[in-house]
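Re: that chain you flagged

S.,

Sorry for the slow reply, it's been a week of failed gels. I finally had a moment to sit down with the sequence you sent. For the record, here it is as I used it:
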Amino acid sequence: MDKEITLSATDWFNEGLKCFKKPDGIGAVRAFEAVVEIDPAYRHEDGDNPYFYLGKISEIEGRIDDAVLFYSRALTLDPYDEESLIGRGSCYTVKKNHEGALADFKKVLDIPPESRNAPLQYLLFAIAENYRQQKDFPNALHWGEKALLEDPDNYRHRELVDEVKKQMRDVP
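Prediction finished late last night. Pasting the structure tokens below so you have them in one place:
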């Protein structure tokens, strides 16, 4: 117990990463919560922050509302935290908050390609899928075709484009 008192925010963060990669979700949550208790605005030297990992763990566990909250906190520290934008956008998609999801995914597109980690075709697909779920078929087709151009052999992208085209033909 005395050891815990002497650990720095960085020590706790590194412990959280180690547990996260095991995977030991309980240990990771304990460590990342310790980081936040020591320094709520903590940023690791590589730019990561504990809120992203708490969000990812919550998302994996199906606690989508908690995940959105943690990703949002991560984004207060870095409004262009790509992984938190994608995580929150994905959670918004699950919750049918398509406007929020689209805003997050499009914000990731604003990150210069040389700095962005997410493959372009997956962002385009996520945007297309949100439009499809809203039955905004012209926008779904537009973004789906862009995704397909980036990755012509991707079955999911082809399936989305084909489904949207069918829906557009079937609409009176």
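What I noticed first: The chain has a mean pLDDT of 94.

Talk soon,
D.
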